[in-house]
Request: fold
Amino acid sequence: MAREPLRINGYLAFVIGILLTVWTCMLVVDAQDAQIRSSFVRDTDKVAADTSARLRTYFDTLLSLKALFSVNGDVDRDQFATFVRELRLAERYPGFRAVQFVRYVPAAALDAYTDQVRRQTAGRAGVPLFTVHPPTPGAGADRADHFIIEFNEPMAGNENAFGLDLASLPAQLAAVEQARDSGRLVATGRTVLIQDTSQHPGFVARAPVYRPRMPVDTVEQRRAAFIGVVAIVFRVDQLLNEVVDPQLLQHLALQVSDTGEADKASAAGVAPASLEGGRLLFDSRPQGARILAQRVLHNHVDVAQRRWQLRYSALAGSRYGRNIVPPLLVGLGGLVISALISALLLASHRGVILEQRLRAILDEKQASLVELEQQKKHVELAHGDLSSVLITLKQAQANLITSEKLASLGALVAGIAHELNTPIGNSLLTATALADMVADFEKQYASGGIRRSALEAHLADTRTACGIMASSLGRAADLITSFKQVSVDQTSDQRRRFDLAEVVRDTVATYAAQLRRANCRVEVDVASSPRLILDSYPGGIGQVLSNLINNALLHAFDSSATGGASSHISISAGDIDGSHVMMRFKDDGIGMSEKTLHQIFDPFFTTKLGQGGSGLGMNIVYNVVTGMLGGTISIESTPGQGTSVTIMMPMVAPNQTVAA
Reply:
């Protein structure tokens, strides 16, 4: 009767195993989908951020051109070309088509202006004959304004735009007038560039230029001071192909559409349908590519008063598709395990049958088992003896470990007590002497025979005693503070943005007197730079530098080894990859042996125990750098060749958490 449940349990285990396998496969697929979704969102955010950052760079260039006109009043063609060439935009950011200056020309001055430009450009290599084109509708009395492209860099490939009158193009004219009246940088909507025969969509960003030292507070004042606009011309596909990683475009399709003015787009909202039709600026979808419908996202980028809508679509078979291998392996593994468990239970069923047969055989040999039982008892007694010996050995081992710990603790306490004994003893002796001097002075005062010289001598002795006590107690306080700082409180410092050069200079300045006494010259090679502005803990960095300087003065420049010769410390720092800083502290002192170098960060390890060294300085340095500052520290040293300490730390320190 007991055989049948075992067989049923075997089949039931197989079914349960299959169900668990299916559930695990579903979990794997869900985890894959979550990871793919996170990667897709991260990639789309990067595209939007990179596009926005690159456009800001170009727009900053426009503002620098505007500043050139604001400083010089009027800029000639050579100055404009030199300024653009020095920016090296074509080398650094080749996603633009041309940089232009559009001059405002009243209708009455058009002919004189045309003759003047022709005289200026006559004979220039690569510059075509200047002609205002196309004819402006309503020219003459009905059309008082002209906005003509006068400077065009580079000229090669953009000849058709030279002399173009934007007043003849309603969309371009509206953008120029909007920039003139608002005083802000303004971009056009989707446009086809006259100098581009491919008919790809493009746009133009323009910034107004006003005469220097004229008021521009109102629209009327801005129109009166207006002399033209500086502009950057883009073909959208060239811009985005430069900004967006080509490898990324192999996995997702990007569509960009102009949705109009940013304020109106924010108020009205943008529907996905706006990506189609005449406002489409860019579409990277490969022909015939299949889109993953569940992997479509939208976001937007504001471009000089206009808003671009970005639509991202994952391509099938790319990094955003599911990988069937992990679920397949999980399913195969679950199937194998379920089969093995089922087979094990069925084997147990057969084992029951074999057990019954063996029991009959064992009953026949009961006599031989008695002897085996006796042997078993002997083995158990031997095992008990061995267990007792093992327990005794473990107790001896624990006693040895405790003894070693107590010995180390005794050495530590003895060293700290020795360090504290001298300053505290000096303070006690000086205080006793001061008390005796005060008692003698009180007796003289009571007798009424105090002379001026006795008073001055008493004051001098009191001042000397106070100085001795303050110095000794300060030394004791420093030792106690260092002892308490073995475990650095990583949340005790105030975090802020600061210039690393200022912190280094301020820290070195506090040690000026000690360095002069030690005949030590300090060379600081840390320049004030925006690339060395840190968001971290200046107190921690100052503490690290202070401990390194103290360590060098106490150990590296030992007068007994250097003979009182002059010594040198150099501190340098620099940006590594835009997110980390490397700071190097070097001295030309006596250096360290390999054994000392191996123990340098151990708490309370010092080569001058009882001679002013507490053994805590480098341990605190290590804790601050690796904990509070989130960096790494390494030391290189050779006896007689000095020591070099290299600290690598992030520009943005990790957030510190306080334990509950």
User: Anything to note?
Assistant: Residues 1-72+324-361 form one domain.
